[in-house]
Write a structure and sequence with these properties.
The protein is of the alpha+beta class. It contains 2 helices and 8 strands; from the N terminus they run ααββββββββ.
């Protein structure tokens, strides 16, 4: 009788191992199931050479109530000014989104006019650019800040670094 109880326990153990193995195999096969992927676009298949990018822009701030001209540098902009869509993503209550109009375009540089309405000061955002007919959206590496009329604007700090534990004056 002891022999058959031991054999039954071993048999039950092997059945449990078998069931666990079948579950692992089913999970593995399900996870490895071939998924449908969208075909690669020209940009994805050729690398980053056709990628839309923003490398910088100037000025990095604007004062509310004034129209500013912004120069944006990057890659793969459209030569047609109207095809380059620039946005801050800032929407003002009762006014709507801040609109940026591209006035000049080349593949590596854009000039755009933006009117910053009164009440827009205190907002900041990255710039984004898309080109009509292309799926990319480029985000600026820095932030565009809208200041209130009359607020001070810090354009430089000197010295740019100090030694730890040293007392120094900072010129703004």
């Amino acid at each position: 009788m002891k022999m058959s109880i031991t054999k039954n326990r071993n048999l039950i153990r092997y059945v449990h191992y078998g069931i666990a193995l079948v579950i692992v195999l089913i999970c593995t096969m399900t996870a490895c199931k071939k998924k449908e992927h969208a075909p690669l676009t020209h940009q994805q298949s050729t690398g980053s050479s056709n990628r839309l990018t923003i490398t910088g822009f100037s000025p990095t701030y604007g004062i509310e109530g004034i129209t500013h001209t912004i120069t944006i540098t990057g890659t793969n902009f459209s030569n047609t000014a109207a095809d380059n869509i620039i946005s801050t993503g800032i929407t003002l209550p009762g006014i709507g989104p801040i609109v940026i109009h591209t006035t000049h375009a080349s593949p590596t540089s854009l000039k755009a006019d933006v009117y910053l309405p009164p009440g827009s000061g205190g907002n900041s955002a990255t710039l984004s650019i898309s080109v009509k007919g292309k799926p990319d959206v480029a985000m600026s590496p820095s932030i565009f800040t809208i200041t209130k009329k009359g607020d001070p604007i810090i354009t430089d700090v000197s010295p740019r670094s100090v030694m730890q534990k040293n007392h120094t004056s900072i010129l703004l």
